[in-house]
């Protein structure tokens, strides 16, 4: 079986969803996670999640040791731009693994091996194209490919910026494609839009658009399914993971629960979903939507910005609800 290790440097206090995330990792025992953190809370870590307590300064020193040029790493957020270099930075930790990668912790895993099969591993050196989960084949060429130039840009020039340059989602994908290396881009994950209160999935296949209007998720002993309503019929589709970008999730279950429902924006005790339950759970909440985005954008609202932001949100709502 192809071996996998995910590398996650995280500094600060882990969010409440972390305990649920750990449980979803536990139910993927053939996959390994390696966490570097300064959060010393005694979590109930499963056997396949290994933790090394360290400071951000120690990680910054480790990253600097991997390069001859001065690294720009003023805050943990900038680590996003260094993800593609983890194969080089953490080389001693990934020996013996066939694939290494990175992932976020604001998600819940389904059954990883149902999607990342041996056939996928045999055909792709890079699996995934989003920053919330990507795997790379563990060999010297792939681990150092990020140092190559593409479109006049280099890793070194981009990481010198104080901003997040989305190297993990933009630069690295353009580089692989320029080298003729295929990337596994099947949208087997549910990346939830951050522009609406209720659930809408980005990166859909065209055939799945009708299922993007009314749906929730169920979690059952490691299996993650979307339950969607189309023409008053419920459809079940399995997913690799659901990603809660920028969403605060109210956890109404015990973290170790093996069966529950995921609705906007809560984890709740399982009950058999009906058509009406799913439709009601995922209805648009215009007031909640407006309040949330005002809180997120109030600091930058003025006469020059409010109209473009309003128009962008209107167009986004139109695409999500009218064109579905």
Q: How do the helices and strands follow one another from N- to C-terminus? A: EHEEHHEEHEEHHHEEEEEEEEEEHHH
Across the major sheet, the strand order is 3-2-1-4-7-6-8
Judged by helices, strands and strand pairing, the structural class is: alpha/beta
The span between the termini is 40 Å
Radius of gyration: 20 Å
Q: Helix count, per DSSP? A: 10
Q: Stretches where pLDDT falls below 50 for ≥5 residues?
A: none
Q: Quick check: average pLDDT? A: 91
Residue share in helices? 25-40%
The global form is: globular
Q: How would a textbook summarize the main sheet? A: 7 strands, mixed
Beta-strand percentage range: 15-25%
Overall number of strands: 17
Please tag this protein with its features.
single chain, 324 residues, seven-stranded mixed β-sheet, globular
Walk me through what this model shows.
This protein is an alpha/beta fold and 324 residues long. Helices cover 27% and strands 24% of the residues. The chain contains 10 helices and 17 strands. It has helices at 18-26, 56-65, 86-89, 118-123, 140-144, 155-159, 167-178, 275-281, 286-297, 306-322; strands at 4-10, 31-37, 49-53, 99-103, 107-109, 126-130, 133-137, 183-184, 190-192, 201-202, 215-220, 223-230, 233-238, 241-243, 250-251, 259-263, 266-269. The strands form 3 sheets. Strands 3-2-1-4-7-6-8 form a 7-stranded mixed β-sheet, sandwiched between helices. Strands 13-12-11-16-17-15 form a 6-stranded mixed β-sheet, with helices on one face. The radius of gyration is 20 Å and the shape is globular. The model has no long low-confidence stretch (mean pLDDT 91).
């Amino acid at each position: 079986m192809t071996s996998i290790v995910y590398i996650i440097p995280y500094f600060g206090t882990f969010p409440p969803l972390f305990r649920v995330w750990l449980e979803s990792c536990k139910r993927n025992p053939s996959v390994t996670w390696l966490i570097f953190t300064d959060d010393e809370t005694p979590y109930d870590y499963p056997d396949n999640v290994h933790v090394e307590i360290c400071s951000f300064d120690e990680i910054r020193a480790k990253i600097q040791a991997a390069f001859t040029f001065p690294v720009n790493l003023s805050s943990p957020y900038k680590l996003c731009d260094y993800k593609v270099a983890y194969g080089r930075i953490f080389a001693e930790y990934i020996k013996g693994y066939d694939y290494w990668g990175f992932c976020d912790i604001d998600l819940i895993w389904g059954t990883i091996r149902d999607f990342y099969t041996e056939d996928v591993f045999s055909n792709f050196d890079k699996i995934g194209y989003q920053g919330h989960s990507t795997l790379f084949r563990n060999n010297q060429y792939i681990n150092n490919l990020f140092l190559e130039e593409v479109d006049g840009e280099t890793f070194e020039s981009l990481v010198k910026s104080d901003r997040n340059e989305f190297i993990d989602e933009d630069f690295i994908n353009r580089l692989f494609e320029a080298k003729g290396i295929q990337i596994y881009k099947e949208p087997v994950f549910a990346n939830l839009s951050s522009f609406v209160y209720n659930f809408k999935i980005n990166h859909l296949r065209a055939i799945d658009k009708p299922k993007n209007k009314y749906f929730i998720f169920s979690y059952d002993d490691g299996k993650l399914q979307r339950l969607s309503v189309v023409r008053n019929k419920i459809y079940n589709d399995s997913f690799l993971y659901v990603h809660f970008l920028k969403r605060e999730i109210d956890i109404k279950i015990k973290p170790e629960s093996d069966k529950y429902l995921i609705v906007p924006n809560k984890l709740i005790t399982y009950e058999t979903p009906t058509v009406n339950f799913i439709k009601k759970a995922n209805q648009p909440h215009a007031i909640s939507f407006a309040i949330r985005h005002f809180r997120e954008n109030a600091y930058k609202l003025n006469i020059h910005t409010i109209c473009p932001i309003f128009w962008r949100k209107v167009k986004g709502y139109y695409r999500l609800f009218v064109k579905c």
